[in-house]
Write a structure and sequence with these properties.
By secondary structure, the protein is an alpha/beta fold. The protein is 19% helix and 32% strand. The strands form five sheets. Strands 5-8-11-14-17-20-25-26-22-23 form a ten-stranded mixed sheet, with helices on one face. Helix 1 crosses helix 3.
Length: 268
C-alpha cells in the first residue's frame, strides 16, 4: 500500500486509477478501525508514518461532495461521518461529531465535540464539551480534554508531526496545543495554557529555570506564564508556559487530575 500511495503522491494522474483509489480507501478504513496510525509509539519515541498522512490528503480529491442527512440536520461534505457507536462501545452525546477515518477506542466519551479524520483517541478518554481533536492528532488512554480544548490538526506539510497527548494527561479548559507538541504521560495543563512548537516551557521548580520547547515532560503540572522580551519598539511580555510542580504518586489517579492543580491553587 505504501508504494501505491507514494506513487500517487508523486503523480496525481494515478488518482484516476481504480486500484489506486481502492488502496487509498483501504488505508482510511484501517485508520478508522485503529489498525493503522499516522503516528505510533516506538519505545519512548514516536514514529510518524508520513505515507499514511499522504493517503489522507489523497482521499479528499477522490471523494465526491454528498448531502448527509442526520435527523433534522443536513451536511454537505466529501467525508462520511463515523457510525456504529454502540458496537464500538463509544458514548456519543448529541451534537458530537467524528469523521469517518478517525479511530475511537472502546470507552471513549464524546460530549458535544469534534474529532477529525486520521485522529486516534484511545480507551477511557473524555472529549469534553466543544473540545476539538484535529486531523491526525494522537490522544492516549484515560486522557481528559476539558471544555473548549483545541488540539491542532496536521496534514500539510507532510513532514510535520501531529500533536501527541500521551496516556493519563489532563488538559484544562480552553487549552490550545498545536504544531506537533508532545505532552508526555500524566502531565497536567491548567486552564488556558497555549503550546506551540516555539512556546517556551519553563520549569521553575528549582533554583534555576530549565527550558523546553515542543515537549511537556511526564507528570508536569503546567500553567500559563509570561516573560519579558526586548523588541526594537521596547520591552513586552510574551506568553510562555510554566512547570510549577509534579503530580504526586500518593494521589489516587482518578482524582489527581483536578487535585494536582488545586494543590498549587491553580484554576482547572
Amino acid at each position: 500500500m505504501q508504494k501505491i500511495i507514494e506513487a500517487a503522491w508523486n503523480n496525481r494522474k494515478l488518482l484516476k486509477d481504480t486500484a489506486t483509489q481502492t488502496t487509498i480507501r483501504e488505508v482510511i478504513e484501517l485508520l478508522d478501525k485503529g489498525k493503522l496510525r499516522v503516528a505510533e509509539p516506538i519505545g519512548n519515541e514516536w514514529q510518524v508514518n508520513e505515507w499514511v498522512k499522504k493517503a489522507v490528503i489523497l482521499y479528499f480529491p477522490i471523494q465526491k461532495m454528498e448531502t448527509i442527512e442526520v435527523g433534522i440536520f443536513e451536511y454537505h461534505d466529501k467525508m462520511k461521518l463515523k457510525t456504529n457507536y454502540e458496537a464500538l462501545g463509544v458514548r456519543v452525546v448529541p451534537n458530537a461529531v467524528a469523521r469517518y477515518g478517525a479511530y475511537l477506542a472502546k470507552g471513549v466519551i464524546m460530549m458535544p465535540s469534534y474529532v477529525n479524520i486520521g485522529a486516534y483517541v484511545d480507551s477511557g478518554t473524555m472529549v469534553d464539551t466543544w473540545a476539538t481533536v484535529g486531523s491526525c492528532a494522537q490522544i492516549g488512554k484515560d486522557v481528559h480534554l476539558s471544555g473548549g480544548v483545541g488540539i491542532g490538526g496536521v496534514l500539510e506539510p507532510v513532514q510535520a508531526a501531529p500533536v501527541i497527548i500521551e496516556d493519563g494527561c489532563f488538559i484544562g479548559s480552553r487549552c490550545i496545543v498545536v504544531e506537533g507538541v508532545r505532552v508526555q504521560s500524566q502531565a497536567v495543563l491548567g486552564a488556558n495554557v497555549v503550546l506551540t512548537k516555539s512556546t517556551k516551557i519553563i520549569d521553575v521548580t528549582g533554583n534555576e529555570p530549565i527550558e523546553y520547547k515542543g515537549i511537556v515532560p511526564s507528570r508536569s503540572v503546567v500553567i500559563p506564564g509570561a516573560y519579558t522580551k526586548k523588541f526594537p519598539a521596547g520591552e513586552y511580555n510574551v506568553p510562555c508556559a510554566l512547570i510549577i510542580g509534579q503530580r504526586k504518586e500518593s494521589t489516587d489517579l482518578k482524582t489527581s487530575l483536578n487535585n494536582a492543580l488545586r494543590e498549587y491553587d491553580v484554576a482547572v
